[in-house]
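[Discussion] Sanity-checking designs against the backbone

I'm trying to build intuition for which residues belong where. Below is a structure token string of 451 positions. I'd appreciate it if someone posts a full sequence so I can compare it with mine line by line.
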């Protein structure tokens, strides 16, 4: 008898053999997961890591946990039925008593270190830090495969949800024309900085602080960087292509997905079929689109016969004027509240809910203003650069600086506003595991494209 994930988790609970989970990075995403994890059978949160003890403790209390934190060691904590706390993500990742580690720091260099240590300890990893995925995903997955463990995208974040939609459509015999997500976007947002971001969100700084909102993180959502990172990771996981000169962010509501997100020769805006894109919830004049998809994900696909087009009409499938292009979407994503699906899938089925397969797209650094030699770049969501999605081949030819390596590096050349920052424009980058894997990925790409 085949049991579904929930049944198998319940069985695990009844047998008293709980899966042991460790969480690194106790931000909003992880707290949302923890809140649901305490109600999920078959798993136990046994270890957490965060640089800030008070923040970690507050996250647990917010999520409804009554266990005290124990800093003395993993075994001592378990004996006392407590949760082990450490301020070292590496120390948690190295713990060989965990079945799975959730990496949710948002720091790509730290995330790579944590992944490699978890692989060595034979723990599966759910990689919430998609910044690490876009920076050197193929090399990370290569290490996971060598260790015979799973490294999965995080369900609840949009890339994994879109991977699921694509899989459903392709396994049903349809051609995927376009896939992506919605966001709030206007061209001026590319210049946004942490000091201007709350104006665009309609919040005061006091309201943002009261809500515990991180201005740099929210600025990454707004200035296009997060969209570039997530859609690059999606392309790298699915084989879809990326636009040659960045995402278009067309203003499109759900009623127009199949009418606009199709190739130009068919009356749409895409250069080619089979690509990723992000739609804006705002018209270019700033007015909101009534049926916008700001919080959701979508896929546009193509019929393969007149009979299929007839079926589309009969069952109310949203189509374009020709009836050939159709769309399917999900209006919301539940962020960390849905992460349990990735956890259960990795532990019970030994598979991911999306993972990088190849280096197709890259999120590269673009100057937000005229930058001068001697300035230091402040990375994702900062004041100096934003992340733009371009093909991997173009990134390699430009020797572009990936957004994941654009933090605290010094410019040695002036870079005009709107120009991609080259690795030749900066002083040497500190060697790290992330940097090493990035260079390995670039070398593998160059070698595979020699002919």
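Best answer:
Here's mine. Compare freely.
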């Amino acid at each position: 008898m085949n049991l579904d994930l929930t049944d198998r988790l319940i069985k695990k609970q009844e047998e008293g053999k709980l899966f042991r989970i460790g969480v690194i990075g106790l931000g909003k995403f992880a707290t949302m997961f923890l809140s649901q994890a305490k109600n999920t059978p078959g798993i136990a949160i046994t270890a957490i890591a965060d640089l800030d003890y008070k923040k970690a403790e507050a996250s647990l209390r917010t999520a409804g946990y009554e266990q005290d934190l124990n800093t003395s060691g993993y075994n001592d904590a378990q004996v006392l039925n407590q949760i082990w706390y450490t301020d070292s993500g590496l120390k948690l990742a190295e713990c060989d008593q965990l079945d799975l580690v959730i990496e949710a720091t948002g720091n790509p260099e730290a995330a790579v270190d944590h992944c490699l240590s978890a692989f060595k300890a034979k723990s599966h990893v759910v990689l919430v830090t998609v910044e690490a995925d876009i920076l050197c995903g193929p090399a990370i997955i290569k290490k996971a495969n060598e260790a015979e463990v799973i490294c999965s995208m995080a369900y609840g974040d949009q890339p994994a949800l879109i991977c699921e939609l694509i899989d459903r459509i392709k396994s049903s015999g349809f051609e995927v024309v376009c896939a992506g997500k919605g966001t709030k976007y206007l061209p001026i947002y590319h210049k946004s900085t942490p000091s201007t971001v709350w104006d665009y969100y309609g919040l005061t700084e006091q309201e943002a602080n009261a809500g515990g909102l991180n201005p740099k993180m929210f600025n990454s959502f707004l200035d296009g960087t997060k969209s570039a990172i997530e859609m690059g990771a999606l392309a790298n996981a699915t084989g879809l292509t990326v636009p040659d000169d960045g995402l278009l962010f067309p203003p499109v509501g759900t009623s127009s997905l199949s009418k606009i997100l199709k190739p130009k020769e068919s009356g749409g805006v895409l250069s080619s079929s089979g690509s990723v894109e992000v739609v804006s919830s705002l018209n270019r004049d700033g007015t909101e689109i009534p049926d916008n998809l700001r919080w959701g994900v979508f896929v546009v696909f193509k019929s393969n016969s007149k009979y299929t087009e007839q079926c589309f009409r009969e069952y109310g499938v949203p189509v374009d004027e020709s009836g050939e292009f159709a769309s399917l979407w999900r209006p919301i994503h539940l962020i960390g509240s849905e992460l349990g699906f990735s956890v259960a899938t990795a532990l019970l089925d030994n598979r991911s809910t999306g993972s990088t397969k190849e280096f197709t797209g890259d999120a590269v650094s673009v100057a937000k203003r005229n930058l001068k030699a001697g300035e230091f770049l402040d990375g994702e969501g900062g004041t100096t650069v934003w992340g733009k999605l371009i093909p991997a081949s173009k990134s390699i030819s430009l020797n572009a600086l990936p957004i994941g390596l654009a933090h605290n590096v010094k410019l040695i050349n002036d870079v005009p506003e709107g120009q991609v920052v080259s690795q030749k424009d900066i002083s040497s980058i500190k060697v790290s595991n992330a940097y090493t894997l990035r260079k390995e990925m670039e070398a593998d790409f160059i070698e595979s494209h020699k002919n």
